[in-house]
Design goal:
Rossmann fold, Aminoacid_DH-like_N_sf, 273 residues, 15% strand, alpha/beta, binds NADP nicotinamide-adenine-dinucleotide phosphate, EC 1.5.1.5, 3-stranded parallel β-sheet
Length: 273
Amino acid sequence: MTLIDGRAVAATIRARVAEDAARLLAAGTTPTLAIVVPTDDEATAWYVRSIVRTGEKIGVAVRVVEERELLGPCLAELSADPTVHGVMCQAPLPPGVVRDDIAVHIDPAKDVDGANPSSLGRLAVGLPAFAPATAQAVVELLHAHGTTLAGADVVVVGRSAVVGKPAALLLLAENATVTVCHSRTKDLAVQTSRADVVVACVGSAHVLGAAHIRPGAVVIDVGTNPTTDGGLVGDVDTAAVEPIAEAITPVPGGVGPVTTALLLRNVVTAASH
Ligand code: NAP
């Protein structure tokens, strides 16, 4: 069984992004990401700080904008700023705020985390668009592991607009045969245990165990579930699945670091357009 090393995959991506960012800088453009932070959530603050630090290392400026109320106008203003190339609003959102309602204010050309509903729509019809970085990370990790996706049976567990749906669309674009499961799926184990690749994006600790995975399958665990001792576990019971799967991404150290690297890659891509 192989643990797919997300930190190593992320380091390779960052090195390439740093080269591209340096070229842009030499030509007079500092690739810049603006992150709107709408709450005081502690985990969010930690994640945003890690994006800022990673950006500093590879030549992407990250501007953190704390805005609690006028989120739509704030995102529109940042989208109109020619010195900003990527715009995102960090979850969680304040109570009562609907993600789609505010994300429509992000210019799709700067929508580096694929939050504007039109980005997901473009992705669905095969037009160029930024996908959410986490969904991109799923495909990137599978490529890095050398998994053949064309013709593979892939089961995605979770159908959110942030992870499950865009991951399914990206995998479909890779010519995989994709099944999407969710909380109303009749028998999850029947679906997942026939898959060559299982992508878990559920948001509940250890929902998938030995009975869900076919021998030799590759498992991408997107879930990040906090434990009582301050740690983090995925949606997959890794210890139970290890003897069965061919490969699995660890939590932490799998999807997370690749997501951050790809988000910054998207900023550099947006800045070069
Ligand atoms: P979400 O919006 O809560 O969606 C969860 C999905 O899982 C829903 O589609 C839900 O089905 C489905 N589901 C829930 N319980 C299920 C069950 N028992 N069996 C089958 N399906 C079930 O969560 P999300 O935003 O997509 O995030 C998913 C996980 O990814 C979370 O742990 C989150 O922290 C993590 N995440 C990680 C990163 C990263 O960079 N590593 C980034 C983003 C998210 P219904 O649609 O029927 O409700």
